[in-house]
Amino acid sequence: MNGPEQAHADLLARLEPDHRVRRGDRPLHGCAFLLLVVPAALVAGLLLGLVLADLAGAALRRAAFAEEGVPVRATVLETTATRLKVVFTTADGATVTTWAEGEYRPHPEHAVPLVHLAGVPAVARAADHAPRPGWPLPAACCVLASAALFSLHHRLGFRAGWFVRRLRVHVRGPAERPRPVVPLLVTAAVLAALAAVPAVLVPAADRTAVISGQGYTALAAVPPLLLCAVAALVRAALRYAEDRPLTRLPRPFRPLPRGTARTALALSAAAALTALALYGSPAPVSRPVPGTVEVVGVVAGDGRPRLELRYEADGIVHHRSVEVGRGAGEGLLEDGTVAIVWDADDPGRVRLR
């Protein structure tokens, strides 16, 4: 086999400071792998799993309402920012009180056109409700795309680790006693099989039953299991690269410039803070109506607490939250009430007085 080309030598010189390449170095120990890599994969996978379950539930409900929705006229009893507590009578004369998806739009008779599932009337949404795609989907796509990019082109990514290990084998020769990779491959296969169970059963089950029983939440387990399987495969691949004989030199690649990860993280944090600031901006109150309302709780927000309020306006009970300054939430909670104003045209728009 010919010696490494100049491109291999140049790339190895760039990657050596970030990888274990000295003879006395040891790869990540099994216990350290279990304590560091696996928990990180579980946490990241759980976040992605929650996004997947939410998207799956929204897709199932959207399809079910489009195909099986029964229109009805309901009366609004209570509201939140995204849901309505309504009461209506079905075609067979049953009276149903439930929480429905949708935003409150003021009506003189507190009426709202509703669509409910024929088999489960308690699952309902406002007829004009069109769920907007939120931030979880684009955020998850950005995370996955960034992970793929960094694994292929970052100095500490999988591709760089494979390159350094294979060239080390070329220089020093393979290990006398190669470490086994089969247990890691079996572990990855078992984890992938477990992840396939909810991925297969949820789409195959009765859609109405899945929606009413929130069976789609089982999909939250799929990404953590898959990420742990990927971690086991990566560990097996790197172990193979470090111990097995070399038959062909790995192809050189162009690593990302230094500081790329820090820059990407800073830009992501700035984008997240901007999105939170825009999302959390209060709706304007054009025709203010003063009142004193009940404080039912304090929720820790993004650096500032939010008061959970309960008040009645125009015969409807509204549940809303408003942002307050640091240290003020607990005091207002002890007082039990707070002075606010809401919009005469839309009592759901509220701010502190």
Q: Which features characterize this protein?
A:
353 residues, 9 helices
Structure write-up:
With 353 residues, the chain is an alpha+beta fold. It contains 9 helices and 10 strands. The chain has helices at residues 6-15, 30-68, 136-153, 158-172, 182-204, 207-212, 222-243, 260-279, 328-335, and strands at residues 69-79, 83-89, 95-101, 111-117, 124-126, 288-300, 305-313, 316-323, 337-343, 350-352. Helix 2 (30-68) runs antiparallel to helix 7 and helix 5 runs antiparallel to helix 7 (222-243). It is elongated, with a radius of gyration of 28 Å. The model has no long low-confidence stretch (mean pLDDT 80).
Task: Write the H/E string, N to C.
Answer: HHEEEEEHHHHHHEEEHEE
* Poorly predicted segments: none
Q: Calculate the terminal CA-CA distance, rounded to whole Å.
A: 80 Å
Output the number of helix runs: 9
Mean pLDDT: 80
Rg from Cα: 28 Å
Total strand count, please?
10
Instruction: Kindly state the percentage of residues in helix.
Output: 40-55%
Overall, the morphology is elongated
Strand-residue fraction? Answer: 15-25%
Structural class: alpha+beta
Question: Would you spell out the secondary-structure blueprint of this structure?
Answer:
Blueprint lengths: L5 H10 L14 H39 E11 L3 E7 L5 E7 L9 E7 L6 E3 L9 H18 L4 H15 L9 H23 L2 H6 L9 H22 L16 H20 L8 E13 L4 E9 L2 E8 L4 H8 L1 E7 L6 E3 L1
Parallel strand pairs: 1-8
Antiparallel strand pairs: 1-2, 1-4, 2-3, 4-5, 6-7, 6-9, 7-8, 9-10
Helix pairs in contact: 2-7, 4-7, 5-7
